[in-house]
Amino acid sequence: MADTDEPEKKRRRVVELTEKMVVDGGSGRTCEWEGRWNHIKKFLERSGPFTHPDFEPSTESLQFMLETCKILVIGAGGLGCELLKDLALSGFHNIHVVDMDTIDMSNLNRQFLFRPNDVGRPKADVAAGFVNSRIPGCCVVPHFKKIQDLDETFYRQFHIIVCGLDSIIARRWMNGMLLSFLVYEDGVLDPGSIIPLIDGGTEGFKGNARVILPGMTACIDCTLELYPPQINFPMCTIASMPRLPEHCVEYVRMLLWPKEKPFGDGVVLDGDDPEHIQWVYQRSLERAAEFNITGVTYRLTQGVVKRIIPAVASTNAVIAAACATEVFKIASSAYIPLNNYMVFNDVDGLYTYTFEAERKENCSACSQVPLDMHFSPSSKLQEMLDYLTESASLQMKSPAITATVEGKNKTLYLQSVASIEQRTRPNLSKTLKELGLTDGQELAVADATTPQTLLFRLRFTS
Amino acid sequence: MDTRFQGKMLETTFFLATTALERTEHRLPLSCYKNLTVMCLETLSRRFTIVIGVQLPESTCLRLGSVLWSASVPFLVCKSYGLIGYMRLVVQEHTVIESHPDNALEDLRLYKPFAELKNHIDSYDLDSMDKKDHSHTPWIIIVAKHLEKWLSEHNCQAPKNYKEKEAFRQFIREGILKNENDVPEDEENFEEAIKNVNTALNPTKIPSAVDDLFNSEQCNSITSQTPSFWLMLRAVKEFALNEGNGSLPVRGTIPDMIADSQKFINLQNVYREKAMQDAGAVCKHVESLLQSFGKPPESVSEKDIKLFCKNSSFLRVVRCRSLAEEYNVDSVNKDEITSSMDNPDSEMVFYLMLRAVDRFYQQHSRYPGVYNYQVEDDISKLKLCVTSLLQEYSLNVNIKDDYIHEFCRYGAAEPHTVAAFLGGSAAQEAIKIISHQFVPFNNTFIYNAMSQTSATLQL
């Protein structure tokens, strides 16, 4: 598309780029040049019929985006690399990125900010370094950490947070963190306390992008049932009735390895160590031969051990682009943001479906009302634990339950600290009545899926 | 082909360095450009599996399109304009064997089990099994056994509607073993059987899409030039008419299910062996077809035929109209355009606006609203283009002024995120064309970043 200095003359020119494409290097030149932001300025400085009602054309919006607006990108993998590129090229120059992983060879086919030399280095560091040297003026600050290692002071500094995660637990945690910032005055939500969360997810040829305005729109937990719990193979199948090659590999991984400790005591199975995989592969073949099962290959073995879900670069590009567009819309008020969930699938042609995910009235994360739990006084604590982990709307991982009993704070059960686990384990087989719990009692539950403790109200059934 | 490298391009192009700004610009003689049309068709088709045209002016696009159509080279056109993305696929005939459908039904043949399957089912006697065996019998056997009884009691009529299927499910439930207190045992395999009744009882039919292919010209007029896809299809058709007794070759796979290893593997092998047998029969048909043209049987490999048979329910052929057909007043798809525009905010309006903008470029040698001072005046100029477009094609549709204003506002901008969305989409479509796996779109894709919606139109 031409934006000519001499509009009347049509000239054809071919620019030969003989020097090496600066994919690997930097520029180190001046930050601004003529026409750099022409594309974006059209959306910031011109009025239009479809803009957000609050939008006002201004030359200051660009300055805000370049200098002041702070974006947090969570994840520097398939989606993260795309997000960083998209945001940097859209005028966001204050970006932080968090990722706890290091670079693996298998990442290189799509996580394009990384090179073979970078294998083993932290993703956040390398990604930030690449973008900073490639986009003059852009400042990406890396954090080689788990999201749980950063506190609320850290998260509060951002205008918008974008997630490119591969874990539902992490999403829920982030969701919970932003919900904890919400301020209500006389029951009315202060919009200034909202930090928008843009969430992207992909798996193979499918993906989704959603806009979450905590306290206003559906949150991650409101739509938890959209994420079916991961299905693991039942133990009895693995132990005594394998049918698929995958069952054979899981048998070796879960039962043989801990028993035989092939590389020494305490040596954990490392999916990236070819010797480990080779060992698992050989034993899986033996297992399969016992049952006349065909199909065990080295590749399948590694796939099962590393829990590899095939990733497609183009899906990441599409979903990240949609997310970055939403960041732009929200930061600039240029258009009404996506309301609020888009699904994408390009297995057969290209298919998108956009809808408004609804808030759940009794959402465990955002409804603010302590959730009721109904149990008979003679139910055992174990039943409560099972409910918390197995219910589709809660899907907790290892909840810690505390209650105020006779004026004192009592830990009923906690799994994550061995000594406390041991001490409280007998409580699991005690009834709620025996534990001193009363009808209408408040229980506090902590779990990896949320940074905040959730409050439940115990209701006794007869 | 014709680009002027400018600073603003760096905003949108990730892999061009700022150092490239200092490049001197070379001029290419106009004659070289004209030679594009004279380029040898043979060379084109030999050299490129696919050609992707990005941000091409309309005239270039049409000229290139016509050359590539004659050379039978797939052409993918991509445009990003403001917040709109556009893709057009132009391919005469694209065959797909491995379409990998998302929700494929299993090929279990429970309605009319083939002989080997029937024998295998007969080898089970559910009533005389001990509990362990009973609980680890594959659900396929359970459904088959109960279906046998049902058919004998219902005049050979399989359960059809919801009521009958519900009764059938209940019938299976009654087959669950009971303990000494007459309480049903926990038999997960029976629960699986009940869950799968809906899908397992589908009669084995040749899918209509495949039937259409069987009835097509290419399938029935095989020559020595016919590509192997149609040759194999014809062989499968012959198989269906003969050894297959009206059905496609057995697929040979079964889903995982609760069962002990031996029962599962044995059942799986029954299907696998039948699939091999059927593929073998198809191979014979392929051979005789090849022979009739004096071609050696190795011309089509056994591996390819096996893959074809396994995927025979999922075969797809995509045929796109040419750009000439789309743009020609006599062959324009008026129905598609006018029916879409019943909703004046449908994605079709963006297609029409892109066409109008192309018209604008032809007339004014620039795009509307590029500079701020142009926006206001260009709205009326663009509106004239819209009117003349609709008139030329006799399209009785109404385009709201808002869209005309919006397209002037865009000023031919290419914000990166819109281009990235389209780039990812286009890349995958190109891979589909090259790999012949998964099904490409047919034939126009519009992406609207304002609402995060999209549509596929056949123009």
UniProtKB/TrEMBL annotation, chain A:
<dbReference type="GO" id="GO:0005634">
    <property type="term" value="C:nucleus"/>
</dbReference>
<keyword id="KW-0833">Ubl conjugation pathway</keyword>
<dbReference type="Pfam" id="PF08825">
    <property type="entry name" value="E2_bind"/>
</dbReference>
<dbReference type="InterPro" id="IPR023318">
    <property type="entry name" value="Ub_act_enz_dom_a_sf"/>
</dbReference>
<comment type="pathway">
    <text>Protein modification; protein neddylation.</text>
</comment>
<dbReference type="InterPro" id="IPR030468">
    <property type="entry name" value="Uba3_N"/>
</dbReference>
<dbReference type="InterPro" id="IPR014929">
    <property type="entry name" value="E2-binding"/>
</dbReference>
<keyword id="KW-0067">ATP-binding</keyword>
<keyword id="KW-0436">Ligase</keyword>
<dbReference type="InterPro" id="IPR000594">
    <property type="entry name" value="ThiF_NAD_FAD-bd"/>
</dbReference>
<dbReference type="GO" id="GO:0019781">
    <property type="term" value="F:NEDD8 activating enzyme activity"/>
</dbReference>
<dbReference type="InterPro" id="IPR035985">
    <property type="entry name" value="Ubiquitin-activating_enz"/>
</dbReference>
<dbReference type="Pfam" id="PF00899">
    <property type="entry name" value="ThiF"/>
</dbReference>
<feature type="domain" description="E2 binding">
    <location>
        <begin position="373"/>
        <end position="461"/>
    </location>
</feature>
<keyword id="KW-0547">Nucleotide-binding</keyword>
<dbReference type="InterPro" id="IPR045886">
    <property type="entry name" value="ThiF/MoeB/HesA"/>
</dbReference>
<dbReference type="GO" id="GO:0045116">
    <property type="term" value="P:protein neddylation"/>
</dbReference>
<dbReference type="GO" id="GO:0005524">
    <property type="term" value="F:ATP binding"/>
</dbReference>
<feature type="active site" description="Glycyl thioester intermediate">
    <location>
        <position position="236"/>
    </location>
</feature>
<dbReference type="GO" id="GO:0005737">
    <property type="term" value="C:cytoplasm"/>
</dbReference>
<comment type="similarity">
    <text>Belongs to the ubiquitin-activating E1 family. UBA3 subfamily.</text>
</comment>
<protein>
    <recommendedName>
        <fullName>NEDD8-activating enzyme E1 catalytic subunit</fullName>
        <ecNumber>6.2.1.64</ecNumber>
    </recommendedName>
</protein>
TrEMBL record, chain B:
<dbReference type="GO" id="GO:0019781">
    <property type="term" value="F:NEDD8 activating enzyme activity"/>
</dbReference>
<comment type="pathway">
    <text>Protein modification; protein neddylation.</text>
</comment>
<dbReference type="InterPro" id="IPR030667">
    <property type="entry name" value="APP-BP1"/>
</dbReference>
<dbReference type="InterPro" id="IPR035985">
    <property type="entry name" value="Ubiquitin-activating_enz"/>
</dbReference>
<keyword id="KW-0833">Ubl conjugation pathway</keyword>
<comment type="function">
    <text>Regulatory subunit of the dimeric UBA3-NAE1 E1 enzyme. E1 activates NEDD8 by first adenylating its C-terminal glycine residue with ATP, thereafter linking this residue to the side chain of the catalytic cysteine, yielding a NEDD8-UBA3 thioester and free AMP. E1 finally transfers NEDD8 to the catalytic cysteine of UBE2M.</text>
</comment>
<dbReference type="GO" id="GO:0045116">
    <property type="term" value="P:protein neddylation"/>
</dbReference>
<comment type="similarity">
    <text>Belongs to the ubiquitin-activating E1 family. ULA1 subfamily.</text>
</comment>
<protein>
    <recommendedName>
        <fullName>NEDD8-activating enzyme E1 regulatory subunit</fullName>
    </recommendedName>
</protein>
